[in-house]
Specification:
This protein has one domain. The chain contains 19 helices and two strands. The chain has helices at about 1-15, 15-35, 40-50, 55-80, 90-100, 105-140, 145-160, 165-180, 205-225, 245-260, 275-290, 300-325, 330-340, 350-355, 355-385, 390-410, 415-430, 440-460, 470-500; strands at about 185, 190. Keywords: Membrane, Transmembrane, Transmembrane helix.
Length: about 500
């Protein structure tokens, strides 16, 4: 009951005209960026991060919430219409979603995705309301050893699960950790990876790293392939942008199952919504094979409904995990954690007591943002689709300029412009050779936390490493880490067996 009262207070704050405007702007911009192939919600948040520093924290994070969900729907819009997902979280939606478009049911496919996003996000938001405060209470029991265990779990799970190559995942993690330790060590005063340059004594700003790896790296990647790739053919959107009763009855069970599959993955650091969306799709496909007249391969509405609900449920509970425990479970959540720190805020149990107004207004804005997205996306899907007609050289040139302006506006340092160019080129090389990007962001954000936690734990125990596994919470987290490694090993053995066959 206390949570509902706090949510009511948050709704009262979020429903002010200015906050409603920020929700609308965030949802609009997130969707607009998400429909552009190769971009997505993490790219949108990365681009908007420098801009939001002119806003107060409440307005900034309300807008981020809209961007987050809007980017996910934008990803799916292009997956359905052009068979080109805006981000990896929408790959599973291409299989049946684009087939629906090819059979003349594009509007119904977009409606299925919009309602699925609403259902998944709504379930996740309810879970956040009910359980985020309890997670925060649990997190009070966390000390340095427990936070170190969480960080190690996030490192290993993200590096091993999101990439088909263990070596590439770990290499990306090393890049992120290297960026995190650049500068002067606050305890020993030693210079680390500064090469004697005074400009690096304070380290590299998270904004420079984020914009360079995610945004400018994508610009370079597209520029290197612009003459070899053609935009997908945009199918004309005609017909009713809503579902019939029969279609709703067909999709409803898949929406529910997808949301239930996706919700737990928001608190598991596996890099984002890729795994739950594929699990939801695979589950519906297995059920379809038992039907008298299988529909998969012909534009099955359930094959689109389930992954859409799963992806948004994962995104919603990821915000809850970030607020309650300070644990980013995806690249986008890691960027939002960096944004909290830029405002001098540390997500975790103390955030619910020190900044309760901000937390509950943000949670309330999740519900409002879902409604805004539903209103925006059902009638305006044709408008989003037309954004793909912008010539790529104009579009990505504009993004490059925006990257430079955003970085320079936050520090007014030419050094940061040089760094963002170098990091952007690194991001391009990582894409070129298929290295995952999520481990970099997790390493950059959680690296300092892991280092500080390890030092504090050893200082408090007089150098006894046994303190790292001296609590039930730490042992449980490391046991979860073992399960992750077993899963990765099992997946590798299955893949090898399939190749041998």
């Amino acid at each position: 009951m206390e949570s509902l009262n706090l949510l009511a207070g948050g709704l009262a704050d979020a429903l002010t005209p200015m906050n409603l405007l920020w929700v609308f702007i965030g949802a609009f911009l997130g969707t607009a960026v998400g429909v552009l192939p190769g971009l997505g919600s993490s790219m949108a948040v990365a681009l908007l991060l420098p801009v939001t520093f002119t806003l107060d924290p409440t307005a900034a994070f309300i807008m981020f919430a809209g961007v987050y969900f809007g980017g996910l729907f934008g990803d799916s819009t292009m997956a359905i219409l052009v068979n080109t997902p805006g981000g990896s979280t929408a790959i599973a939606s291409t299989f049946e979603g684009h087939r629906m478009t090819l059979t003349g049911r594009g509007p119904q496919a977009l409606a299925t995705a919009a309602i699925g996003a609403f259902v998944g996000g709504l379930l996740a938001s309810v879970i956040v309301v009910l359980f985020a405060p309890k997670l925060a209470d649990l997190a009070v029991n966390f000390g340095p050893p427990e936070y170190l265990a969480l960080s190690v779990l996030a490192f290993v799970a993200t590096a091993t699960v999101v990439s088909t190559s263990l070596a590439k995942g770990l290499a990306s993690l090393v890049f992120g950790l290297t960026f995190a330790v650049i500068g002067i060590d606050g305890i020993s005063g030693a210079q680390r990876f500064t090469f004697g340059a005074p400009q690096l004594f304070d380290g590299i700003s998270i904004i420079v790293i984020t914009v360079g790896v995610l945004a400018l790296g994508e610009v370079f990647h597209v520029a290197s392939r612009v003459r070899r790739t053609r935009p997908g053919r945009l199918h004309k959107i005609t017909g009713r942008p809503y579902l019939s009763r029969a279609e709703v009855r067909e999709a409803a069970p898949a929406w529910g199952r997808g949301a239930l599959i996706g919700a737990p993955f928001g608190v598991i650091p596996v890099g984002g919504a890729e795994i739950p969306t594929f699990l939801a799709y695979g589950g519906e496909r297995a059920l379809d094979r038992r039907r008298k007249h299988p529909q998969f391969g012909k534009g099955a509405i359930r094959g689109l409904a389930a992954p859409e609900a799963a992806g948004n449920a994962t995104a919603g509970t990821a915000i809850g995990a970030l607020l309650a425990m300070g644990l980013p479970t995806s690249a986008t959540a890691a960027i939002m954690l960096a944004a909290f720190r830029q405002y001098g805020l540390q997500p975790g149990p103390l955030l619910f007591t020190r900044s309760a107004d901000l937390v509950w207004t943000l949670i309330a804005s999740l519900f409002i943002g879902l409604v805004v997205l539903l209103v925006l996306n059902l009638p305006f899907a044709p408008l989003w689709a037309k954004l793909t007609k912008i010539p790529r050289h104009y579009l990505y040139a504009g993004i490059a300029v925006f990257c430079g302006l955003g970085v320079y506006a936050t520090s007014a340092a030419v050094t940061d412009l040089i760094l963002v160019l170098g990091i952007g080129f690194l991001g391009f090389l990582l894409r070129r050779y298929d290295f995952p990007l999520a481990p970099i962001m997790i390493g950059v954000v959680l690296g300092p936390l892991a280092e500080t936690s390890l030092r504090n734990a050893l200082l408090s125990s007089g150098g006894d490493y046994g303190v790292l596994v001296d609590s039930g919470i730490s042992v449980t987290i490391y046991a979860a880490l073992v399960l992750v490694l077993v899963f990765v090993a099992y997946r590798g053995l299955r893949a090898r067996a399939a190749r041998d066959v």
